[in-house]
Design brief:
Elements lengths: L1 E3 L5 E4 L3 H12 L4 E4 L11 E4 L2 E4 L5 E2 L3 H10 L5 E4 L2 E6 L2 E6 L5 H4 L8 H14 L20 H8 L2 H12 L11 H11 L3 E4 L5 H9 L2 E2 L3 E7 L4 E6 L6 E5 L1 E4 L3 H7 L5 H8 L3 E11 L9 E3 L8 E6 L13 E7 L1 H6 L5 H15 L1 H10 E14 L5 H11 L6 E3 L9 H21 L8
Parallel strand pairs: 1-14, 2-3, 2-15, 3-11, 8-17, 15-21
Antiparallel strand pairs: 4-5, 6-10, 7-10, 8-9, 12-13, 13-14, 16-19, 16-20, 17-18, 18-19
Helix pairs in contact: 1-8, 1-15, 5-6, 5-7, 9-10, 12-13
Amino acid sequence: MNTTGTGEPIVIVGAGIAGMTAAFRLQQAGHPVRILEAEDRAGGRMRTVERRGYHMDLAAILLIENYTQMLNLVRDLGIEDTTLRTNNVVGIRRDGRVHHVRANKPTDLKSSGLLPWSSVPAMRRLQSDLNKFGSRLRWDSDMGEAASLDTETAAAYAERRLDKDFRDYVVDPMSAMFFNSPPDLSVVNFLFSMPAVNSEWFNFHDRVDTLTTALAARLPVETGAEVTLVEETSDGVRVHWSRAGEPDHVEEAAAAVVALPGPIAARLCPGMAPASRTYLENVPYVPDIHVYFGVDNKPSETATCVLFPTREHPDLGVITFNHNFAPGRAPQGHGLLTSYYRYPWAIRHWDSDDDKVVELTHEVHRQAWPELARHIEAHQDMAYVQRWKNAVILRKPGDYARLREFSRGLDPRSRIQLAGDYLAFSATNSSLVTGERAAVRVREVVTAGSVSVGRG
């Protein structure tokens, strides 16, 4: 067994956006840090893969200008020149036609023809609710204040406060952005997503992992390092990890931040209070399969993404036109498109091989958007399938109340702090914020020299 470390560093488990943000903020404050990442590269779900000149952002693709904390991080890294304001036109299919809405212009819902004029009162009621509840729906929140709103599904809210057209052609396709449908989704997710997209958008010129690559370049990241146990000791933390072909490693550290999906964090931290471990073990992630198509002739569609109500197709949720987000996603004159499904489709086809998934996606395109299907098949240059087992968290009514109780049960004095999307709204910026929050708590514990005895 190889024992390393002096007890001084703070170990970060996981080199996704939450973990690396925590490490960067701790490093800024003068603390030595060390990141252990099981994969062969850093980035987590904020990674980009290149094939034949196409840059495929694997999970995070849509970035909005009210991601204040992310923009602050970009500034602190000195990489502002890698970003630009981007197209924020969203398309929604209805009756075989794409209706275009600018994300920061909700009045486009009226002028686009997507909704009838009879839906104007529903729009006003929604805007009134957003004005009333907006202070409870913040990126820097642990969602505790939102728990009081978490009493019904998005479908039930639409029935109670909106109207049938609004339910079918706004609430339903917005739910597809969570790979879900309104009857399964907490109203909090829908309400949170409305002001979130009511904003200008930004992105990185060529690839979304510009941010995580910049972080990794400034931090000591140990890749291929699979952590097996994180335990608190009398004066610090002990981290056990392994790598193929090497003796097992044990590192003594001043503290640790575990920035991994909830069920994995529960397995690595057996000293956590039983109620906290049970919550983490049951964080309701849903899987996602999405399919990229590179085409040698850019489609004429101007939207960044087109949403599909269930009435238009029961399985297809969103097609993104990645080349419309920012330049550099596809070679000059080419296009890059990605098809995303509601999660039951991903469950049904999880074990299908990639060729079968591509074939099935072509068939779905023929059903949902025949003209685009013909274009993709005539000009296909590349296809790539990405699977995420823990894609997003399926929040049903009551889940945010349970999250509030879980958050209140965590010990802020513990030398093991958590970070990740399960601690807030399931989005990139929220994950980043949980990393910053964990860094603050770790700094306080290490600086005070305190040791938590009763975790949770």
